[in-house]
Amino acid sequence: MTRSEPRAGRREWTGLAVLALPALLASMDLSVLFMATPWLAADLTPTGPQLLWIMDVYGFLMAGLLLTMGALGDRIGRRRLLLIGAAAFGTASVLAAYAPSAELLVLARALLGVGGATLAPSTLALLRGMFVDDAQRRAAIGIWTAAFTSGFALGPIVGGLLLERFWWGALFLINVPVMVLLLVLGPVLLPESRDPHPARFDPVSALLSMAAVLPVVYGVKELVHAGAVAWTGLLAVVSGLAFGAVFVLRQARMADPLVDVGLFRNSAFSAAFGGYVVMVVASSGMGYLAVQYLQVVLDIRPFTAALWQLPAIAGTVLGIGLVTGLARSVRPALLAGAGLLVAATGFLLVSRVGVDSAPAAVMTAYAVVTLGTGMVAPLAIDLIVGTAPPHKAGSVAGLGEAGAEFGGALGITVLGSIAAAVYTAQTRAALPAGLLPAAADAATETLGGAVAVAEQLPDAPAAALRATAEHAFTAGFTTAATVGSALLAVTAAIVTVRLWNLRPVPAAPAP
């Protein structure tokens, strides 16, 4: 890109601040309720399935609607869709905060998911139009990425702090001022952008995209909650993949598809998208296991475990700042490959932990992982959005976020299954004698099941069972880390080769 391209000024950078806040809240709402479960259960007395839906329906609908909302924004205007979504998100937040029953809270969380699905792709697509200069756009996307990726880790911390002084509804009310700010400043600071020649919106493709994403995410959560092979979960995953294949075939045959699958013929786009998804696969799978390791093996309370995530957030922010500064003089191929290798090194360090490791040692190793992923994420997102035509920015942003959702679900399934297989094999081989078959099955399925069984036993066999389970879980955790390291190392080599022809972008400092 030549230096004659328009440069972003104070208005655009202020608009970036307005866009980063809703991105932060959209991801934070995925995890902010982790601390509030006991209070919710006491006030609303939900059934077991209702409690799971309260926790999960937001993520389900957000994942399922990302593609649709991204494409819709291209057609009706990304700013318009963002403001509609902000109004819906704020209204649903008030409804959730004062929900008098579990059923109404499930509905409010569903509405939050619909609103959240408009925030991520709309904000990212608007950045594509506001920051035309490549270097400035990379810096802006780095800031957006830091906000979006930090939200999930900050959710439990913010939730724990609010619950110290307020009731659980306050976790939703913090969304309202940000949405009001967006509604007031959005029309002033954010330029409208849309496809100048929008095609007819295809409702069949929209339904197929939801039929592909929703069953996969639901199936993965079923497998995770079951802690073993759950046929309903497997069937949901398979059906989602089948609908996904139909969706791709339909898009390939359409003149104006919801998602242009032809973009994957572009080497830079496919390498960035593939590397981004693999990075999410590895990091989400290990993040899921790391939380259990901290809470159960190291016996750390949930809020304290959430605070131990702060070094990981710091690693992410450092990685984003590092790659944003180096991108002006270093090839994207080298930066992406180096970031993936740093993350792979972090996983190798994680694979060295044991049942007696200090939390600081574990989270320092994990911070190396997030340093690497922080280097990769903004670079990949910039290549995904920047490579696509500007008039397709919304649908491509939605595609990138949907890929991240798929990667997260796949990572929990694959690495979680590897860890579970190692855990089951080791606990079954070393169970204390005399356990009833039902208790033995529970102890060999999950670490939580082993802890529950141990609580019903006398001191000596209880200690033996818990020690066996903790060593087995740690072995599964470290095995999954080794697999994640190998996966990232291979991906680093492929991405480096595929991106090699791209040149660095000269500096374009913000005002």
Helix/strand order, N-terminal first = HHHHHHHHHHHHHHHHHHH
Mean pLDDT: 81
Number of β-strand runs:
0
Main pleated-sheet profile:
none
Low-confidence blocks of residues: 507-511
End-to-end Cα distance: 20 Å
Radius of gyration: 23 Å
The share of residues in helices is over 70%
Task: Classify the beta-strand content into a percent band.
Answer: under 5%
The coarse silhouette is globular
Entry summary:
This protein is an all-alpha fold and 511 residues long. Helices cover 78% and strands 0% of the residues.
What does this structure look like?
The chain is mainly alpha-helical. It contains 19 helices and no strands. The protein has helices at residues 10-28, 37-44, 48-76, 78-97, 102-130, 134-163, 170-173, 175-189, 203-226, 231-253, 267-297, 302-307, 310-326, 332-350, 359-387, 393-429, 437-445, 447-454, 459-498. The radius of gyration is 23 Å and the shape is globular.
Protein topology:
Elements (H helix, E strand, L loop, with lengths): L9 H19 L8 H8 L3 H29 L1 H20 L4 H29 L3 H30 L6 H4 L1 H15 L13 H24 L4 H23 L13 H31 L4 H6 L2 H17 L5 H19 L8 H29 L5 H37 L7 H9 L1 H8 L4 H40 L13
Characteristic key phrases:
single chain; 511 residues; mainly alpha; disordered C terminus
